[in-house]
Amino acid sequence: MSVCSQLKQYSRAHERLADLFSLLAVLLLFGTIFAAVQYYGLIGNWIAEDMVLHLPLVVAAIVVDVFLIFAFLNIGSSRFSENGQEEPCFGTFKGRRTGVGSPFTAFSNWVKHMEHVNRKHR
């Protein structure tokens, strides 16, 4: 059993804990944004004191923060399928280029759409 399957099973069994982790992810995101805006001057001055040492620390803190946000969101996600089938852990989003083929096809589809919209509004 993969780690993803174990996390899904645990979050389904403990829904309140899953909700707590989702809330923590949102609080961490907005708390990080608030701290960055509120203490922008102090952080900038601190980085300017010793850029070689302090800048990698700030970048590492940002990477850890983003990792924790995604980890909390993954732990907090407990989706249930309607017909009881197990959803795969990966492959839930096929991507925006699925079925398009080439950029020319996407452009020509967009042109056809715009022509249809223009005909509709005449």
Distinctive features:
single chain; 122 residues; mainly alpha; flat
Overview of this protein structure:
The chain is mainly alpha-helical and 122 residues long. It has one domain. The protein is built from five helices and no strands. It has helices at residues 3-13, 15-38, 40-49, 51-76, 103-120. Helix 2 runs antiparallel to helix 4 (51-76) and helix 3 crosses helix 4. The longest helix is centred in the middle third of the chain and has 26 residues, at 51-76.
Mean pLDDT: 77
Q: Which structural class is indicated by helix and strand composition? A: mainly alpha
As a percent range, the share of helical residues equals over 70%
**Strand proportion:** under 5%
Q: What about the largest sheet?
A: none
Name the helix and strand elements from N-terminus to C-terminus, one letter apiece: HHHHH
From the alpha carbons, calculate the radius of gyration and give it in angstroms: 22 Å
Layout of helices and strands, plus pairs?
Elements: H1 3-13, H2 15-38, H3 40-49, H4 51-76, H5 103-120
Short description:
This protein is mainly alpha-helical.
